[in-house]
Automatic annotation (TrEMBL):
Main enzyme class: oxidoreductase
Record's protein name: FMN dependent NADH:quinone oxidoreductase
Originating organism: Marinobacter salsuginis
Pfam families: Flavodoxin_2 (PF02525)
Residue ranges of the region described as Disordered: 1-24
Subunit structure: Homodimer.
Positions that bind FMN: 10, 23-25
Alphabetical keyword list: Flavoprotein, FMN, NAD, Oxidoreductase
Domain Flavodoxin-like fold span(s) in chain numbering: 18-213
Function description: Also exhibits azoreductase activity. Catalyzes the reductive cleavage of the azo bond in aromatic azo compounds to the corresponding amines. Quinone reductase that provides resistance to thiol-specific stress caused by electrophilic quinones.
Length: 234
């Protein structure tokens, strides 16, 4: 049995009175999850909708608590870090992570960044040692697979695309993913939302089909639970 952690970050719901307002990224991710659970119903499933229920932003008090030795933390400091501890435990338990995110102003939603800020924490998900020279930070978690699901209003944010320099969502997710213990990454994307034309419809349909196919391949082959050595663009 494995554990699947699913994090959505769009502020939109999956089903709205006006279907044009439905979250694209959430619905694509849902296709992946539904397929996975059909194939592996015994797997544990953890869900966070940080778009609708955003984590608190970190504060000066939060930073102070993090850098206070555990044995010296006050009850108030322990409470300040309670959410962070819970979110880190969820990531630590997961074998497979699915993170869905729309592109807001060419990057990730503030709610998703707040989730990462609660998790990327010294002594929990990374350690720090100046003896490593110019690279003192070292992740403490490893062996996980990440599926990144994104939606964007424009297009061409991929490497070599016409908006490559403006696309900060996926590169940021990739950079931060190492502190979640991610070794293998798959990407699913839908584009052209602002155009609302046939390109958009095809892009969404292809993304949903890819989500279903990828979930089947990974869940049935066990590849997501055994690929631990390299980051993959599939």
């Amino acid at each position: 049995m494995s554990t699947l952690l699913h994090v959505d970050s769009s502020v939109r719901g999956t089903n709205n009175p006006n279907p044009d307002h439905d979250s694209i990224s959430k619905n694509i991710a849902r296709r992946f999850i539904d397929t996975w659970q059909e194939n592996r119903p015994e797997d544990e499933y953890i869900y966070r909708d940080v778009g609708v229920n955003p984590p608190a932003f970190i504060t000066q008090e939060w930073i102070g608590a993090v850098f206070t030795p555990v044995e010296n933390r006050t009850p108030a400091q322990q409470e300040t870090l309670a959410l962070s501890d819970t979110l880190i435990a969820e990531v630590s338990a997961a074998d497979v992570l699915v993170i869905s995110s729309p592109m807001y102003n060419y990057g990730m939603p503030a709610q998703l960044k707040a989730w990462f800020d609660q998790i990327v924490r010294i002594g929990k998900t990374f350690d720090f040692d100046l003896e490593r020279g110019d690279f003192p930070l070292q992740p403490l978690l490893s062996g996980k697979t990440l599926i990144i699901v994104t939606s964007s209003g424009e297009f061409g944010f991929e490497k070599g695309g016409i908006r490559e320099e403006s696309g900060h969502l996926v590169p940021h997710l990739r950079t931060l993913s190492k502190y979640l213990g991610v070794d293998t990454i798959y990407e699913i994307s839908a584009e052209y939302q602002e155009f609302g034309d046939e390109r958009h419809r095809v892009s969404v349909a292809n993304a949903k089909e890819r989500a279903e196919r990828l979930a089947s391949e990974l869940s049935l082959s066990g590849q997501a639970l055994s690929s631990r050595n390299e980051v993959t663009d599939a």
